[in-house]
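Q: Please design a sequence for this.
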């Protein structure tokens, strides 16, 4: 069953664990999203952001010893909504990103769908207080 608000949304997956990336790809497809691309490290993710249209992104915080904060900054500059996924809690996030949506691993498809719908709705509502 397709979740209408997410239908056709192009989502970038930034995840270094292949099994988790594949699980995310499956969840996103079931939610009606198109997986725009997958990246396992910040450099690949940044190249994708530069070269492909994406509507949203799911960022693992820790990418084999590197963080995804540079990717988050690039997404912010372009006004592309994103959420973090991590096995750590919100307090493990860099302070500047603690107000961002966070999916605690492991999470359910329903939680992913709600979080993506929320960040896309926030983007549609426009900047607030900036």
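A: Design:
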């Amino acid at each position: 069953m397709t979740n209408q608000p997410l239908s056709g949304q192009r989502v970038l997956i930034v995840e270094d664990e292949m099994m988790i990336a594949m699980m995310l790809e499956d969840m996103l497809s079931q939610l009606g999203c198109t997986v725009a691309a997958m990246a396992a490290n910040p450099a690949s993710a940044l190249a994708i952001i530069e070269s492909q249209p994406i509507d949203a992104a799911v960022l693992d915080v820790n990418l084999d010893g590197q963080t995804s904060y540079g990717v988050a900054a690039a997404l912010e500059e372009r006004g592309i909504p994103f959420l973090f996924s991590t096995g750590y809690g919100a307090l493990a996030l860099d302070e500047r990103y603690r107000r961002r949506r966070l999916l605690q691993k492991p999470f359910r498809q329903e939680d992913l769908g709600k979080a993506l719908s929320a960040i896309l709705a926030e983007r549609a509502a426009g900047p607030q207080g900036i």
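Q: Thanks. Anything notable?
A: Residues 87 and 105 are 5 Å apart (CA to CA). Residues 4-124 form a domain with the Rossmann fold fold (CATH 3.40.50.2300).
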